[in-house]
Specification:
The complex is a heterodimer of chains A (372) and B (288). With 372 residues, chain A is an all-alpha fold. Chain A is 70% helix and 1% strand. Chain B has a single domain, classed as ABC transporter involved in vitamin B12 uptake, BtuC. The chains are: A mainly alpha (372), B mainly alpha (288).
């Protein structure tokens, strides 16, 4: 089958799964489980924001959580001041996009190398974390909204339908909004990637200099990609603030940034569905570890008594359900062993039996193709 | 007058501690072009090594100046052999892998020591300057940093080991052709960088205490110092530490410590925009 057939098949599959989930999940699941699923969907939008910036734009942003947090805070603060969610919703997308554009101007027009770019985005996240964390006093307020510092902002009002302040969304509605927005973002990005802008974006990732010689201003395209990533992360942040009705500075934290990177690298760079799958899988795993409280007894079942004894007696580790430990190990394992991520590897496995003849070796890896 | 003296000491201390926490990272980045995002955790491990050794009855100074660098240096060699060596030339992957290592170490240490702050009180007590008091230990840290920087300069510039290391970094193939083993040099260099980080972490431990996530507090500062400094290991670290240390103390004096750090980091981003190659990319080019 040709690459085009595969692309159409992939798109159709995602569409069908999305529709089934949208109609089926509210009927199959309790409200509490539906709430868990909702946050996975919201975080999946966040994963997509980095998937496009890093996987297709080739910009390794270590601080995607900065835009996520800005979106959440912008929504919360605007909501307390305005009370009707149309403008806060727009602000939650526009402000992170503008901030990303400003930061992108510094980085891309300064012609900073990839590595420094990673460090700068990391630094920006830490700046925001430190700054917002220290605004606990009552003197730090924007209009009606107290910033709350490390305490965060509680009881954020929910979204309402545009122009109808009384029609606040309940948790069921939030699920529908989240899944519709996730599907919209996914298909929107698929469309973007086959548009002129997307083609140039991928060309810049492959060879920035050559694309420049062809007459495209790489800096401008990278700035656009980065701002788009900021906008999507802000959208996710806005929904996230809705989901818990609460934001705190940990949203800017390094842990949050690391998670986004891990979703993308586990799912697969250069795909869109991969980071979504990676996000949901990793979130499920950390939630499971958090609730399961892996004790020595359950560890014994998993790795055998010897290893469990060594771990608990020599190292004195009592609590094995440590999110950092697991995330760190997952990240290390994937960088070293499965650097392409799960979905590209799976995709090749699925396609193998259908290939007319087994390709000896990819002489020129065609990364733009097969964007499932 | 007394106030001026105290402020000068504070600014000097800010500069020295920046240089101290950055120099291990600068050695690893400057010599090997490896961005070690687990640098903060090497500092943290240094602090824990010193405190645990001290709790087992080892003299505090020996624990800080000998045990911590040795332990973290050994961990550094282990990390280089099991992790970094597979990733040379793949800078982005190195960053990701060391970030994974960073999370892993935070998790491991949280599992062992718990998520609490362990402290040792700063030795040597205080000293009166007119109406103000300052800690003698702060002065000792400044002195140790100065000695350390001079020692690194002398080793790199005037010893055979330093020459071999610099030669390998400049041209590994030529070094190999002359009978040297670049992998060994890389392992040792990474170990030395880790040992320096361990020493720094141990020296800072009495001031700030140690807890599993302490590395996060230092990593941004260390990175802006190294990147702001640019390619030259020593002159870069010293000039950037001096600049950012001064900015941080002045900003802290007029606002709060938190905003002092925020303003410093923001200033660093502006500096990198103006001098993408760092300070030594424009000035002091020929220096070490």
């Amino acid at each position: 089958m040709s690459a085009r057939t595969w692309n159409v098949a992939g798109l159709a599959l995602v569409g069908v799964i999305g529709l089934v989930a949208m109609i089926g999940l509210p009927q199959w699941l309790e409200l509490s489980s539906l709430l868990d699923v909702t946050v996975y969907l919201i975080l999946a939008i966040l994963a997509l924001s980095l998937a496009v910036v890093w996987g297709y734009g080739g910009i390794l942003c270590f601080g995607q959580s900065a835009f996520f947090g800005l979106g959440a805070y912008a929504y919360a603060i605007a909501m307390f001041n305005i009370g009707e969610s149309t403008i806060p919703f727009v602000l939650a997308i526009a402000l992170p996009a503008a901030f990303a554009a400003l930061l992108g101007y510094f980085m891309f027009y300064g012609r900073i190398s990839d590595v420094y770019l990673g460090v700068i985005t990391l630094t920006v996240t830490l700046i925001l974390f430190n700054a917002v964390n220290s605004t606990a006093g009552p003197e730090y307020r924007i209009g009606e909204a107290r910033l709350g510092g490390f305490n965060g902002i509680p009881s954020i009002p929910p979204l309402n339908w545009p122009g109808v302040p009384d029609s606040a969304l309940d948790l069921n509605d939030l699920f529908y909004v989240s899944i519709v927005l996730l599907l919209a973002v996914y298909f929107g990005l698929r469309w973007l990637l086959v548009s002129r802008f997307g083609r140039v974006m991928v060309a810049i990732r492959e060879n920035e200099q050559r694309t420049g010689f062809l007459g495209y201003d790489a800096r401008l395209y990278k700035l656009g990609t980065f701002a788009l990533g900021g906008a999507l992360a802000g959208l996710a942040g806005c929904l996230f603030a809705n989901w818990g009705a609460f934001v705190s500075p940990t949203i800017f934290g390094l842990g949050q940034s690391a998670q986004i990177i891990i979703w993308v690298i586990v799912g697969g760079r250069g795909t869109l569905i991969g980071p979504v799958v990676g996000c949901i899988a990793i979130q499920w795993l950390t939630a499971y570890l958090g609730s399961a409280q892996l004790s020595k007894a359950s560890l014994t079942q998993i790795v055998g008594p010897t290893v469990a004894n060594v771990l608990s007696s020599t190292l004195g580790i009592a609590d094995f359900s440590n999110t950092n430990l697991v995330l760190g190990a997952v990240l290390l394992a994937f960088v070293l062993l499965v650097p392409r991520g799960v979905m590209p590897t799976l995709r090749d496995l699925v396609r193998l039996p259908f290939a007319r003849r087994r390709p000896a070796r990819d002489l020129v890896p065609d990364k733009a193709e097969g964007t499932t | 007058m007394d106030l001026v003296l105290v402020l000068v000491i504070q600014v000097l201390f800010a500069m020295a501690s920046l240089a101290l926490i950055s120099v291990g990272l600068a050695v690893i980045f400057g010599m090997m072009r490896v961005i070690n995002l687990a640098h903060g955790e090497f500092l943290m491990l240094g602090g824990y090594s010193a405190i645990v050794a001290n709790q087992h009855g080892i003299n505090l100074w020996i624990a800080m100046l000998v045990v911590a660098p040795l332990v973290v240096g050994a961990i550094g060699v282990l990390v280089e052999r099991t992790l970094i060596r597979f990733l040379y030339g793949r800078m982005i992957d190195t960053m990701l892998a060391t970030w994974g290592l960073s999370l892993f170490l935070i998790g491991l240490i949280t599992g062992i020591f718990g998520n609490t702050t362990v402290g040792i009180s700063a030795p040597l007590g205080g000293m009166a300057i007119g109406n103000y008091r300052t800690s003698i230990y702060g002065l000792v840290v400044i002195a140790i940093t100065a000695v350390l920087l001079v020692a690194i300069y002398l080793v790199l510039r005037h010893t055979r080991v330093g020459l071999l290391a610099r030669g390998t970094m400049q041209n590994p193939n030529m070094a190999a052709a002359l009978g040297l083993s670049p992998p060994k040099v890389y392992a040792v260099t990474f170990g030395v960088g880790a040992a320096l980080s361990g020493l720094a972490g141990a020296l800072i431990a009495p001031i700030s205490g140690v807890f599993p996530t302490i590395g996060i507090a230092y990593i941004a500062k260390a990175f802006i110092t190294v990147i702001g400094g640019g390619a030259a290991i020593l002159s870069g670290t010293v000039t950037a530490a001096a600049l950012f240390g001064a900015i941080q103390e002045v900003a802290t004096y007029f606002t709060t410590p938190v905003f002092g750090v925020v303003i410093t980091l923001a200033a660093a981003i502006v500096l990198i925009r103006l001098l993408p190659q760092g300070i030594t990319g424009r000035f002091f080019k020929r220096w070490l």
